Amino acid sequence: MIRLFVALRPPPAIRAQLAATMDGVLGARWQDDEQLHITSRFIGEVERPVAEDIAAALGQIYADAPVVALHGVGRFERRGATTALWAGIAPHDALAALHRKVDQACIRAGLTPEHRAYLPHVTLARLARGAAGPDADRWIAAHAGLASAPFALPHLVLYESILTRDGARYEPVMRWALGTTV
After folding, report:
1. CATH number of 2-177: 3.90.1140.10, 3.40.50.300, 2.40.160.60, 1.10.8.60?
2. What is the pLDDT along the chain (182 residues), one digit of tens a residue?
3. Is 161 exposed, middle or buried (0-12, 13-18, 19+ CB in 10 A)?
């Protein structure tokens, strides 16, 4: 079984800007540079033949490269406890349209449709349940104004997520160029 997801990778300058925010939350497992991405669709574990079908379907996607910017920060919670800190991405329209195309490609490859609401973001830290406490609130307040100049996301990437004792390691499997916005 192979654990997969489809994502877009911010350019180096944006990843450096994100890395500069990664501090000040006790118990946070900050993402390293190789882990910074905007998920378009989480696929999960599939057999190799299904992975090949997914890759073939993704290769048929035609879309302009989304142009977006960093826009604020936030958190994901489970039962009132912060589980992740993230940087927001805006505008959502082009990313949502690409997400729908990726989802349709995955459906053509035999997967079930994605039912979760799509929120474009870059995960910056993962937290053990209840680890952050007030540190997460302070971090969100300190970085609420996070913003960047617009940047393009010129490639769609199929990643393998390899789970290790130290967290997930992401390996690019295939990459497809997206068109340029005129």
Report:
1. 3.90.1140.10
2. 999 999 999 999 999 999 999 999 988 999 999 999 999 999 999 999 999 999 999 999 999 999 999 999 999 988 888 899 999 999 999 999 999 999 999 999 999 999 999 999 999 999 886 666 788 999 999 999 999 999 999 999 999 999 988 778 999 999 999 985 44
3. middle
